[in-house]
Amino acid sequence: MTSTHTGRPVLIDAAPRKSLVLSLVLTFFLGPFGMFYTTIFGALVMLAVSVPLLILTLGAAWAGIVPACMIWGAWSGHRHNERQRRIYAARGGW
Questions:
Q1: What is the DSSP letter of 10?
Q2: What angle do CA 72, 18, 16 make, to 5 degrees?
Q3: Rounded to whole angstroms, how far apart are CA atoms 34 and 26?
Q4: Average pLDDT over residues 18-29
Q5: How far is residue 15 from each of residues 6, 7, 48, 51, 72, measured CA to CA in Å?
Q6: What would the mean pLDDT of 67-74 be, rounded to a whole number?
Q7: Which residue of 10, 28, 45, 49 lies most exposed, with the fewest beta carbons within 10 A?
């Protein structure tokens, strides 16, 4: 918190927000590895699921893995941003 020339406290939103567009781009090009930007747990789960599926289907599963990663990555980024917004609002911001 800092104060302005009026003496009123001003809250600064220092919590980093996750870019949903960046999440979608990373997961589109990197698949499960792109999910590390928004969710480490989700990335590890998708890697554990993806590797056997890719081996069993000789890579054909990539067509379903990438959209699943994109949805999960964007959803977890949105949840992160909403959680940060609620914390900031509870402290008197927004």
A1: E
A2: 145
A3: 4
A4: 97
A5: 25, 24, 30, 34, 21
A6: 98
A7: 10
